[in-house]
Amino acid sequence: MAASVWSGYLTFGLISMPVRLFSGARSSGISFNQLHRTDLHRVKQQLICSLDGQVLERSEIVKGYEYRKDEYVIVEPDEIKAIEPKTAKTMEILEFVKTSDVDPVYFESSYYMVPEEAGRRPYALLTKALEESEYVAIAKLTMHNREYTVFLRPHKGGMMLHTMYYSEEVREVEEFGAPDVEIKEAEIKVAHQLIEALAGDWDPEKYHDTFQDNLKKLIETKLEGGTVEAVEKPKKLAPVVDLMAALKQSLENAKKPPASEKDAEREAPAAKKRSRG
Fold it and tell me: pLDDT at position 63, please?
């Protein structure tokens, strides 16, 4: 079973339930080691004192906050532990907000929240209430030396927790927003048609990291002594001059069924029959 990243109590009014958090997602990919080019041995990274050049062990390292140039206040792990707020072990629901009011830009990391045996009934009750009301819960939680504001939302019969960025962490870009241009009704109509033509059901299984796939193929081919052909790069598109013409052509292209190996296999017998006739 996966190791939990946090355990404690979720409180809801006078109701308290023991829960655990498990990582909901993490990025993955091919990692490379740094090697010395001449002998292909791994490079070792060392901790070196900038004053005397002495190589240090981990046990010799302390945490320091620079309050003035080259002047630090030392903070020990026990001192950090002593000032943990109550949210280190108790996650209190502060309020409920409508799901539709939450801007996804605030979402940071995702976790599965699983109840302990003693918390199964209140957990199921809260999950059901959130599902039917279309609200999400807002709570506070401390982990990894930080207090987070979090969203709790129902998902597949259980509850997901999402840590959120604070408002001061969400960046504003001055030039971001609706461009000051005129859009014609006819253009909007064709744009809607193009969206409908490309519409599909959400299925995360069909999306893959092509670059990682190519890296795996590159490594396998090099191990076998072969060479990999370079991927054909897309041609640089010219700026759109006639927006309506580009929309219509895009719509026509979207309506054409993509050629597949199965299509080719189905057409092959028919083609042979026509050639004999």
Answer: 94
